[in-house]
Design a protein that fits this description.
Layout: E1 2-7, E2 10-13, E3 18-26, E4 30-39, E5 46-52, E6 55-58, E7 66-71, E8 74-79, E9 88-99, E10 102-107, E11 111-116
Parallel strand pairs: 2-11
Antiparallel strand pairs: 1-3, 3-8, 4-5, 4-9, 5-6, 7-8, 9-10, 9-11
Length: 117
């Protein structure tokens, strides 16, 4: 009933910027929260940022550099001052209420971000 589609990944030099997008579509009642996660080779997936209502939270490694925002059913991750260690596959995750009896998590397919030195 719900699909999440990410876009905006690519190759950028250290110090540069990228903006990722994640759009939710389908049949649902409400998006409660949307998060960005990332997973680099040889590492576990980590939480990058979350937006829930008017509140945002960030992982320690990206504070001051990344900004998460939301416009209706699309969430954005503005990434500035990128570092090589930011290289990873970035995926969005949405906590969605489908109806009065169902609330669940959905994942997007992921988008590759590569930061060169």
């Amino acid at each position: 009933q719900v699909q999440l589609v990410e876009s905006g990944g690519g190759l950028v030099q250290a110090g540069g910027s990228l903006r990722l997008s994640c759009t939710a579509s389908g049949s649902f009642f409400r998006i409660n929260a949307i998060s960005w996660y990332r997973q680099a080779p040889g590492k576990q997936r980590e939480l990058v940022a979350t937006i829930r209502g008017g509140s945002t939270n960030y992982g320690d490694s990206v504070k001051g550099r990344f900004t998460i925002s939301r416009d209706k059913n699309t969430v954005y991750l503005q990434m500035n001052s990128l570092k090589p260690e930011d290289t990873a596959v970035y995926s969005c995750n949405a906590d969605i209420t489908i109806n009065s009896r169902s609330t669940t998590m959905y994942w997007g397919q992921g988008t590759q971000v590569t930061v060169s030195s």
